[in-house]
């Protein structure tokens, strides 16, 4: 198993293990959640989503169609295309044209000229060749005619073999059909018709069948001659027409070459250019380029309607947060989609709102696009596959059978691939093992890439996953296609143009902003430096900055060691100044912490690790009141109480602290945690160790698990995994060993209880 993922790196202590904003408590098992944004002022994309625990015609048939000549080839080409095109899907299913063989390609011009060089000679050779052979076929025809009561042949002429010629022989004269008699005079017959033999007079009953045979032979011969003459005349007419067309083509080519003399320098024609994806006919716009939009109001003129996301949010306050952020940057949010809206914020292309927005040429984008423009503070057109709604319904899982790993991508790019894998229904692992089905590479290098080649795991670029999200489901069967095995792309996340042409249509028209909106957004003029000093600052800031650094120091056993969680950095700085003035200090780590200051219960790393070790969890009012009194006061009146969170998780924070002080929750317990766990393995290890447990570095064997389970004197071993790592637990499941999800640890530490039933994988 090889892991180059950054998931195991030490995480920020403020990371919310609920995958929601730190100030909003969440259900332990939400319906759908996504990982929270790390930058202030961005919408939380994944707060509501938990980590993702037609065939071508055969050559024979194609040759038969092409052998019918130019007229048949042109008339039946649509039918040929319909024969091999895949069935029409509800989702867009566009076959990669680069990997489909070209059908019905016209013959080379030089071959046509060669075929037309001597039509008369070719015709004579074909006719003479047809008169010399096939005696056996003639005998067969004779036998059939002899046994037929009616001597006249069928009036319908047989189909000529020219219809079955391959492509390279279309322009040649085909052989005439075989006939039983040659054109030379027949040899003397033992029973001539003119005079009977003088010595042996045949009987009438013997002459009659012979005369019938001769008459039938003459009729067949005449018929074959007529058919041959008609066929030769048709072929001559066809060759004459093609010769005229070729002369016109040569005249046109000569005229073209005379206009471009430099082309004559090349003996061979240049190779045809490689097929290029169609480019948008017009440039894409955000706002009108002629209007200067202030950076703080870059969403000015944008009216959003939000679809798909509200149904997936377990926390309805999150939607209000999105609206507030949009409005803070000049945009507006309507409760329902209407003609007033300019943007539809949606996850899927399969909805009535999306269809209406597309008809009305509205801009359809995702929450990921909104986060990207919030970072840049500029209204940019969508330029990544994640910026467009997926081409299948919400909850669709086209990649449900895939276990995806990535290599060469870091930071935001790796996070984007995780989100893309989640939206496609695939499992994501930061490591690579033999159970992985696809490795997404930025470049063909690295240990993961080498092992994937050794284990015969397909290696593709990021465009493979992007095309699947945008509806090209044929990519699921095209992992070996050259399009997806080309690496070191300038922008591997750029969407395939022909998959998003209809979605980019609305971005070809600039967004107009009225002068009234611009005037309403003008920020107040900045104060000059002299004016700024005359403004009276708040009293709290005045007291902190005016008070000199403290000179008193408390005894080590009386010095509070404090940590903060759930606050903005500016607030933390103010609290730390007060703490220093009172003689306290900031704890170096959670195990050394004595006081945790929080405004509400949050499932951050600090909070969940501190529950097991701190003496007090208090509100900021304790520090404010201590600062007012210029000494640390008793904590009992300022203990944190969060009725909403305690009802939500069915626990009492005060009781949890008491139980943790009596005995650590995970004392004398070993944990094996699979590497793809979310939150990260390092975070889970910190929480477990603060609660008294130990984490094993290697998976325990079945014999060891059974030994520890039967011998009560040995420590218990608990297995923790996630949906993406269940393939690593197949042996445990097969032997009936329980495996739990991360909530066994997270919720267990918060409530200080061991629940072996609620979080067990079935």
Automatic annotation (TrEMBL):
Residues 1-25, 143-162, 172-214, 246-288 are annotated as: Disordered. Residues 150-160, 174-201, 268-283 have a biased composition (Pro residues). Residues 202-214, 246-267 have a biased composition (Low complexity). InterPro entries: BRCT_dom, BRCT_dom_sf, DDR_Transcriptional_Reg. Coiled coil: none annotated. One of its GO terms (cellular component) is nucleus. The keyword DNA damage applies. It is found in: Nucleus. Residues 294-387, 413-465, 559-640 form the BRCT domain. Keywords: DNA damage, Nucleus. This is PAX-interacting protein 1. It comes from Phyllostomus discolor (pale spear-nosed bat). The lineage of its organism: Eukaryota, Metazoa, Chordata, Craniata, Vertebrata.
